[in-house]
Automatic annotation (TrEMBL):
Pfam families: DUF5122. Residues 1-24 form the signal peptide. Keywords: Signal. The keyword Signal applies. It comes from Allocatelliglobosispora scoriae. This is WD40 repeat domain-containing protein. The lineage of its organism: Bacteria, Bacillati, Actinomycetota, Actinomycetes, Micromonosporales.
Amino acid sequence: MTRRIMLAIALAATLVVGISPAGAAPALGRVVSENPVDWTPHILDGSVWAMTVVGDTVVVGGDFTTVSSSDGYTEFDRWFLMAFSLSTGAVTRFAPWIDGPVYALTPGPDGTVLVGGDFTEVEGVPARSLARLDVATGRVVPGFTASLRDGDVRALAAGGQWLYVGGRFDTIGGTPRAALARVDIRTGAVDRGFDAELDAPELDRVKVEDVAVSPDGKRMIAAGALMDAMGEYRPQLAMFDISAPTVKLADWYSYVYEPKCRKGFDTYLRAVDFSPDGSYFVAVSTGRMSKSGLLCDTAARFETYGSNPHRPTWVNYTGGDSLYAVAVTGSAVYVGGHQRWLDNPYGHESAGPGAVSRPGISAIDPKSGRALDWNPTRSRGQGLRAFAVTPRGLLVGSDTDRLATEYHGRVGLFPPA
């Protein structure tokens, strides 16, 4: 390791201050390697909250300000957004000026990226928490009109001509919508025919933490601080039938997330992802487990179709540590957070009988629900928040700089094995 990289490690350690793209991940035939590539750039401060891939470009969002090349010799100012080549790791010129953190990203049409977060303008153009940018230039795409009145965007998922927007808001594009809306992916025009009617009478405010669209474009899931959807009881998890122009609440429901976790975690779902074939999805949660049997601090698989009310096919418990991100690739279910263990239903902030050490990043067998042997390790920090899956492997984004015992500043890529 060069002296320059050692200096970058020290700098990163002094700068640490510390909300994935939704939708189904591409299938990967095998579990990825435990050894990340050596040529990805490093983010030197803050946290990564979102990652997505547009062509050969990886776009990264969060609350960071400084990036370095993979060798540590060149530093770049990159406030809340940066991009690099998926082929070479070179930091690109994509450097739009934005005045607040980015929490969600998803590819748009014609080489663009949709950006959600908690900001008010991009490149001097008013854009409250939602914008469409050209990946080559970083410029705002003119004519995209979706904007919040207040609040933030925490989740984005593309489905055909539509962009599904989730977060903490009550108005988008001048149209009243509680925490979830559908807008034209090119223009941002709100679909006035779709209102999820999310409500949470027991909570302070409705909030969507994640959205995912099935690979066939027929189903959409919203997860977060919600209790009702379209007049029906849907605790923390609502599925919608989006196969026709008129969106309907899907005939799918589950009550397993109805019980409360520890005080302060009345709602605790954080991320969802469909399998590549769309037959099931996996949800991950926080919650600080208070007693066995609840789905706090877990990963859980649910079948997309079948008899109601749905129960999880399997549940994997961390034993009291939060999971924030999930990517389902077919060969594995990758989960990230600040977990210390998996296979730990009897642990209470401890390793119970049968627990296996899986710090910060883990892989679960999609069929059995048991932890796979894959265990690269990651320094835990507050937690891993972002995955992006491509044929080149598994991209990860977090708030720490040790991945597989190597220095990787908040960004890494595990290639196919």
